[in-house]
Amino acid sequence: MADRTWTILDLIQWTTGYFKDKAVDSPRAAAEILLAHTLRLQRIQLYLNYDKPLNPPELARYRNYIKRRAAGEPIQYITGEQEFWSHTFTVTPAVLIPRPETELLVEEGARPLRELPQPRALEIGTGSGAIAFSLAGEVPDLFIVATDISLDALRVAGENRKQMSLTDRVPLVACDLFSALDPRAGFDLIVSNPPYVSEEEYRATPREVREHEPAHALLGGEDGLDIVRRIMMSAADYLRPGGSLLLEIGATQGKAALEFAGGLGVYESLEVLRDYAGRERIFKARKR
Question: How far apart, in whole angstroms, are the C-alpha atoms of residue 279 and residue 25?
């Protein structure tokens, strides 16, 4: 990128071509998102200011973002944010980047909670807090405890909780699964997007996932179900009778999840829900 006067349109066009050469996903969108972040504009505003030139500090900042993205760093970690359930969440490499398909957990979790007076819920492995805070936004009288084993992740969740003014309704707890919780809590819902990627699947994931997102939040053991099984074995002790368990799982894990949970003898109405792409996505059950 030689020294010259660069307008917004010039940079979008040049970066799009550069990203295409580097096999960056969605090159035009990536160029626009990074440029909008550089200039602290909304993407739509780029279209209204195509002829605007960048000053040297802006250009230097944008060049740095281009290099980071071309090297495989996820765009969400560069901008420090990700959209989820119509909210903008702070994200860092300490937490997984919330995916659109995980919104199904919020959709399915909120539905029964809306029918209950003063419902109580628990999220295991909250990460950025996207699921817990989205549920709290959907169900105004919901009290939801959000746990994570990672203190760095809880710091990120704390930032998002403050931004959404949910401190009073969403306590953050540092613990491994249920280890710091009282079984007498009687939750109406336990929800989690746990680590469920098998070792074989992890080796085949895109480089930017393996090199940048936290492995402990992805890897679920040899078959991917180690943490899923641990949650299933303990969750019934913390649910009230009729309370629901919702877990995100991998697209090939439905049968194994149903068989294991069914063998525990403490759940009923077991099913696996598919996402909007038709893939198995959510394990769902109720405590007997």
Answer: 22
